[in-house]
């Protein structure tokens, strides 16, 4: 077995992935001065689309109270959060292409499509209510010794368990 096969074809141990993610998280914090976050990029994409069609999202209550965290000269599509989100998508695509695992998966039926759409909307809404997704609220919070990361992790575990029970009983 070649080194390429060991690295690309075989699963890595969880502890190796954990160490690599931790080091990348520290590197990101050191180089950009901000924690790893993803869901804010979806907020920025939506705000940019609304502004393109003439709706001024930057005047909304959310951005006036909580701010948009953009530096001078940045806009909703040109900022470090969007660059990181784009790099993650490109990196994930490169990874699946390298191991020849890229494929389109057809949605089985209309019910699955509707459930996926509703689930995505609820997840996006919940992400904005909690000021972050599992990356910012969990992965970046626990290494920063933040209590909210541990609380989020506990409820994420309970929610995933409960959600899987509902999913398998009523939907799949």
TrEMBL record:
Transmembrane segments: 12-30, 83-102, 114-141, 147-168
Subcellular localization: Cell inner membrane
Stored InterPro entries: Sulf_transp_TsuA/YedE
Keyword Transport: yes
Keyword annotations of the record: Cell inner membrane, Cell membrane, Membrane, Transmembrane, Transmembrane helix, Transport
Record-linked Pfam families: Sulf_transp
Entry similarity comment: Belongs to the TsuA/YedE (TC 9.B.102) family.
Protein name: Uncharacterized protein
């Amino acid at each position: 077995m070649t080194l390429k096969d060991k690295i690309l074809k075989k699963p890595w141990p969880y502890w190796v992935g954990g160490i690599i993610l931790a080091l990348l998280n520290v590197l990101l914090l050191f180089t950009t001065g901000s924690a790893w976050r993803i869901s804010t990029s979806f907020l920025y994409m939506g705000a940019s689309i609304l502004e393109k069609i003439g709706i001024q999202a930057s005047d909304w209550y959310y951005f006036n109270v909580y701010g948009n965290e953009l530096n001078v000269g940045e806009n909703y599509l040109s900022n470090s959060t969007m660059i990181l989100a784009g790099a993650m998508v490109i990196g994930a695509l490169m990874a699946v292409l390298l191991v020849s695992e890229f494929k389109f998966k057809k949605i089985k039926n209309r019910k699955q499509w509707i459930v996926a759409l509703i689930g995505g909307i609820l997840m996006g809404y919940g992400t904005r209510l909690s000021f972050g997704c599992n990356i910012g609220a969990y992965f970046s919070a626990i290494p920063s010794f933040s209590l909210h990361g541990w609380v989020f992790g506990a409820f994420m575990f309970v929610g995933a368990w409960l959600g899987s029970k509902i999913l398998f009983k009523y939907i799949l």
